[in-house]
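Sequence only, no structure available. Ideas?
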Amino acid sequence: MKIADVIKKALDKKGYKNLKDASKALGISPELLRVTLNKGHIPKDRTLTMIANKLNIDKSLLVLSAHQEKVPDEVKGFFLLPSQAKTARSKRRFPLSEEQTAYLEKILSVDEIMLLRKYRQVNDEARVQIAGYVEFMYSTKRRER
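Reply:
I predicted one. Tokens follow.
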């Protein structure tokens, strides 16, 4: 589920009918709320945490969903979606469930997971450069075989 849908659902549940009232209650600008809900903008983790606290949404679920949306399409298949069912029963100590962690350990090494974390933290220009370098190295190694 996209974060915009999660936030919309929580706002409806709380009874907010317009963006101005909702943004005031959340402590963010109406413009930020509008682009988040309607344009697919993903706010910073700090803002997502603040929204989660005000709307009684699981913080780790909201932030994890946001990071899931940010991941490039080529690697989205490597990640499981955050599970609301498990978070409803009890708070998780780590942002990933045991099932998700076990899944990632099967398909990625620790170095690969760390590389993906770093990749998500760089700007778009750096991502293009990294993707180009990886593609070059992959095609070079393929020709050597």
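The longest helix spans residues 124-144.
Hope that gets you unstuck.
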